[in-house]
Amino acid sequence: FVDELEKATAHDEVTAIGERIAALDSEMRRAALREPYRAALARVKETNRRWYEANKEKSNAASRAWVIANPERARENKRKWMAANPGIYRAQMRRRKLKRVYGLTPETWESMFEGQGRVCKCCGSNDPKAKTGWRVDHCHATNKVRGIVCHPCNIMLGMAGDDPDNLVRGIHYL
Length: 174
Prior knowledge:
174 residues; mainly alpha; two-stranded antiparallel sheet
């Protein structure tokens, strides 16, 4: 097996050899082959990574073409991946939304929140008061980000229509 592992050039080949090793009766034999198997797998992964870096556009075009040709399988693969990687998926969606809607990166958001003392910029609370966390407050006319606020303050500002006069009238009412 060691010679086969050293000659293996594709991930499928290494995996097939690994399955044959796993079927062996002797734990000692499996243990002796564990490190060569891991080394072969790492070598193949590095080869694949280098190829992808050199052929990124070609690989991405082929992936897009496959998704167009196989929409049902692509959706099923995506659904399975999302179920298996919920934390990564949420982080990707957050990154995309921050960039698309507010023009922020998660790092910029974090820096902004740190700069306001990690509290609501409106009321000073350190509790977002929502399961989904803090909100990005922004001017709806200019889309300029004003700060990070808690859920109640975001609702209050939104219901006031970003109009300070509405807020003043509300203060006088109270």
